[in-house]
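Tokens for chain A. Residues wanted.
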């Protein structure tokens, strides 16, 4: 999944490399260009990450001010790429997250590979004992195979 933050990162790298090449060549010739490109890439990388880091800090501060019920409702229907942040906040508050397993299972059996990858990351990170029950699960496999693995896991939970 290519996000807006990935675009900022890519633009930062391109603009940084171009700027490093231009200024390096202008001030120090071709050697300055060779040195300026890696320096520009590094600076572009840092600058390109600023929007992502700022959004992450904003989301974390926003989560700390939300009620537990609101976080749980966000987990049920919010943007799935942020689900791990919701679970981490619930754990930080000492809440049980086992009632959120059905949402994770729905991600694991989704038709979208991206959602399956997020579900698998969450299962391995927060429910490692359940992930061990389906060691052959591959989020890149076909939807039918993933759904069969989820069914096997659901049966083991019952």
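Reply:
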């Amino acid at each position: 999944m290519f996000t807006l933050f990935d675009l900022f990162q890519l633009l930062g790298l391109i603009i940084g490399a171009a700027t490093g090449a231009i200024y390096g060549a202008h001030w120090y010739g071709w050697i300055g260009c060779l040195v300026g490109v890696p320096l520009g890439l590094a600076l572009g990388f840092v600058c390109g990450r600023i929007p992502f880091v700022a959004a992450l800090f904003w989301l974390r501060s926003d989560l700390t001010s939300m009620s537990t019920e609101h976080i749980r409702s966000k987990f049920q229907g919010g943007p799935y790429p942020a689900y791990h942040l919701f679970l981490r906040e619930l754990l930080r508050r000492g809440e049980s997250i086992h009632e959120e397993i059905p949402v994770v299972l729905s991600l694991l059996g989704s038709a979208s590979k991206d959602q399956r990858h997020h579900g698998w990351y969450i299962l391995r990170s927060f429910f490692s004992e359940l992930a061990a029950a389906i060691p052959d699960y591959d989020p890149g496999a076909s939807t039918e195979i993933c759904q069969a693995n989820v069914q096997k896991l659901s049966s083991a939970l019952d």
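The chain has two domains: 1-65, 69-158. The CA atoms of residues 109 and 148 lie 8 Å apart.
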